[in-house]
Amino acid sequence: MTVGGDGRSKAEGSVLAERLNHLFAHMHPPGAPYTNAHVAEEISRGTTEYGGVKVTEQYLSMLRNGRRANPSPELLRALAKFFAVPVGYLLGDLSQPQAARVEEELRFLAAMRDQRVRAIALRSVGLPPEVQDSLTTIISQFRRQMNLPDGPPEQGGERRGARPDTDR
């Protein structure tokens, strides 16, 4: 196992970089993904929301490209809070079922940014379960006709409570 200059293995750093990049790309308000500058500014604002942590866009860039892999526990907590994921998700410390659950929730939240998907979901609220089941069957039939997988799209790691529709 190769160890980086900060004492962490390259594999550990790559998990953090991979997860951060995924969160930056998929957990954002409609429009464009977050930038390092935006996240650094939000976290460093000086409010107690993120524990008074200060971070630069350059350091976030180094974390995302794997050149740094050992951020302080305070920064990890701040990043986890910003993206509404458990700290263990960023580090790859969750069990496989826990990580799968986080990723499922993140895929859901990212999908809900789409106005049309949200409209379909909201219109089904209050319908009897058998009608909701029929709608699911109809959607599955359309997906098969279009040669799409039956299940929701797999986008890779995603979590709970994140608010991809709101500005941060």
> What is the percentage of strand-forming residues?
under 5%
Uncertain residue ranges: 1-11, 155-168
N-to-C CA distance: 38 Å
What share of the residues lie within helices?
Answer: 55-70%
**Global Rg:** 18 Å
Q: How many separate helices?
A: 8
**Broad shape:** elongated
Count of extended strands = 0
Overall structural class, as computed from helix and strand content, comes to: mainly alpha
| Average of pLDDT | 81
SSE topology string? HHHHHHHH
Q: Biggest sheet: strands, sense, closure?
A: none
Oligomer: single chain
Task: Give an overview of the whole structure.
- The protein has helices at residues 10-26, 36-44, 57-64, 73-83, 87-91, 96-111, 115-124, 129-145.
- With 168 residues, the chain is mainly alpha-helical.
- α2 packs across α3 (57-64).
- It is elongated and about 50 Å long.
- The N and C termini lie far apart (38 Å).
- Mean pLDDT is 81; it is low at 1-11 and 155-168.
